[in-house]
């Protein structure tokens, strides 16, 4: 009787022990899931600004003891709302020191536009910064105006941008930091490539490759000036050293000034450009790239420039600069 009672007691103790172990294991699992849930919430909260748009990005700080920031070189044509939106945004970027607006319209900018832009530059600048804002008024409408030499520039770095696209300040400042590590290179966000023509049917030895060619091959040889950093000296070289026949070609065809700048920089450096990863926001309607025959015209430009320079100056590369601070896998 005593032995049976002892056996029952041991079985009871074992059941309680198993129940306790099971409960403890369940508690650990629940605690682990709870910790994972809290971690996920914290991570999402820290990344929420990046999901809300280009106006709410964190950016690295820049030493303001010297004016070693960059000049915003923006090309515009009768899209005043887009110009206002762009200037209002970029004046909040910490590295911006000056704004140079290329104006090729027949009429000068209105007083109301001047007032708005100057007010934006003044009100959005933080930490006691002063942002210079100037208009380059051109009598003649030419795509070459985009790369006219800037007299008495206050920065070495130029950030060339179209008025219909926006990049977050974080992306701009990252690309600027990449440029500072290689100031002779073109650094930007929109890569393109030249391809060797394997077909005997086409009379051109080279073909202009758009985004899908870059994506397919993982290679590029140009950075479009619609969103790129380069040294201010290249504006002087474009204005004063570019072959006159090439400038006339760009003016007459109203296309390919960006390819011409890529050829010029590559000819001077013998090195490829640098593609920087960044978010892009389209704020305007489609441009000439959406028109029929655009790719064929660009192919013609590439081959014409090879003839002008006497060789293919563009250098292909597969390198891409990525900000590891905002990347999970790299």
TrEMBL record:
Indicate the segments forming the Glycosyl transferase domain, all copies: 70-321
The membrane topology term of the UniProt record is: Single-pass type II membrane protein
Q: Which GO terms describe its cellular component?
A: endomembrane system; membrane
Which compartments is it annotated to reside in? Endomembrane system
Does the keyword field hold Phosphoprotein? no
User: Would you say which domain of life the source belongs to?
Assistant: Eukaryota
Q: What is this protein called?
A: Glycosyl transferase 64 domain-containing protein
Q: Which organism is it from?
A: Deinandra increscens subsp. villosa
């Amino acid at each position: 009787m005593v032995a049976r009672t002892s056996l029952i007691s041991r079985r009871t103790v074992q059941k309680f022990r198993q129940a306790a172990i099971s409960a403890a294991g369940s508690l650990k699992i629940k605690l682990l899931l709870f910790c994972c849930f809290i971690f996920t919430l914290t991570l999402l909260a820290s990344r929420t600004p990046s999901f809300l748009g280009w106006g709410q990005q964190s950016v690295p700080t820049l030493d303001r003891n010297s004016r070693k920031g960059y000049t915003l070189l923006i090309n515009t044509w009768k899209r005043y709302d887009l110009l206002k939106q762009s200037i209002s945004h970029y004046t909040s970027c910490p590295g911006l020191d000056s704004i140079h607006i290329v104006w090729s319209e027949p009429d000068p900018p209105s007083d109301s536009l001047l007032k708005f832009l100057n007010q934006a530059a003044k009100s959005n600048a933080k930490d006691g910064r002063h942002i210079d804002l100037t208009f380059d008024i051109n009598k003649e409408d030419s795509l070459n105006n985009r790369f006219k030499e800037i007299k008495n520039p206050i920065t070495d770095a130029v950030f060339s941008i179209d008025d219909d696209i926006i990049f977050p300040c974080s992306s701009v400042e990252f690309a600027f930091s990449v440029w500072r590590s290689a100031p002779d290179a073109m650094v930007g966000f929109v890569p393109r490539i030249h391809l060797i023509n394997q077909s005997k049917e086409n009379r051109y030895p080279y073909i202009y490759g758009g985004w899908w060619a870059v994506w397919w091959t993982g290679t590029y040889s140009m950075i479009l000036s619609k969103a790129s950093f380069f040294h201010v000296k290249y504006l002087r070289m474009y204005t004063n050293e570019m072959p006159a026949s090439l400038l006339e070609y760009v003016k007459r065809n109203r296309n390919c000034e960006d390819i011409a700048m890529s050829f010029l920089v590559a000819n001077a450096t013998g090195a490829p450009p640098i593609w920087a990863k960044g978010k892009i926001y389209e704020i305007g309607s489609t441009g000439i790239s959406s028109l029929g025959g655009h790719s064929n015209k660009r192919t013609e430009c590439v081959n014409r420039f090879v003839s002008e320079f006497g060789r293919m100056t563009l250098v292909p590369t597969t390198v891409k600069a990525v900000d590891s601070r905002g990347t999970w896998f790299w």
